[in-house]
Amino acid sequence: MLRVLMFLVPLALSVYAFIDCISTKDEDIRHMPKPLWAILVLLFPLVGSISWILAGKKRHPAGTPGAAGSPWSLGGGGRRQWVAPDDNPEFLKSLNEDKPAKDRDEDGDKGKQDRGD
């Protein structure tokens, strides 16, 4: 079992690093051009993968907010994470803006007369 892990762990690391390298935007890559990073990861799987993860990509701080009005936010490492609608103030404001003023009562919902009660 240990022999299999000694083969699979570096393979998984190099596959992850290669996919991360080729899917990263050019402006987020540091120190070398993207093709050189990809070749480094492919030719030297362990050293190249660790180098890419540590030095090849710009990492964003954990508190970086996402685009305004978007249900996504940038979490740790610059990756986009889903924000629940009830935690998104722009979404909550847009709920009342979408309804015409005549359909809203004081609570913001339609009255009982429209429901047939």
Structure described in brief:
Residues 59-117 are annotated as: Disordered. Helix content is 46%, strand content 5%.
Topology:
Elements: H1 2-23, H2 34-43, H3 45-56, E1 72-74, E2 80-82, H4 89-98
Helix pairs in contact: 1-2, 1-3, 2-3
Task: Report on this structure.
This protein is mainly α. The protein has a domain at 1-24 and 31-56. The protein contains four helices and two strands. A two-stranded antiparallel ribbon has the order 1-2. Helix 1 (2-23) crosses helix 3 (45-56) and helix 2 (34-43) packs antiparallel against helix 3. The longest helix is centred in the N-terminal third of the chain and has 22 residues, at 2-23. It is elongated and about 70 Å long. The relative contact order is 0.09.
Number of distinct helices: 4
Topology pattern, helix = H, strand = E = HHHEEH
- Which strand order does the major sheet show? 1-2
Q: What best-fitting shape do the alpha-carbon axes yield? A: elongated
Biggest β-sheet strands, sense, barrel: 2 strands, antiparallel
What average pLDDT do the residues reach?
75
Report Rg.
24 Å
How many strand elements?
A: 2
Distance between the termini: 67 Å
Protein structure class:
mainly alpha
- List low-pLDDT spans: 65-71
Strand content range: 5-15%
User: What does the oligomeric state look like here?
Assistant: single chain
Overall helicity: 40-55%
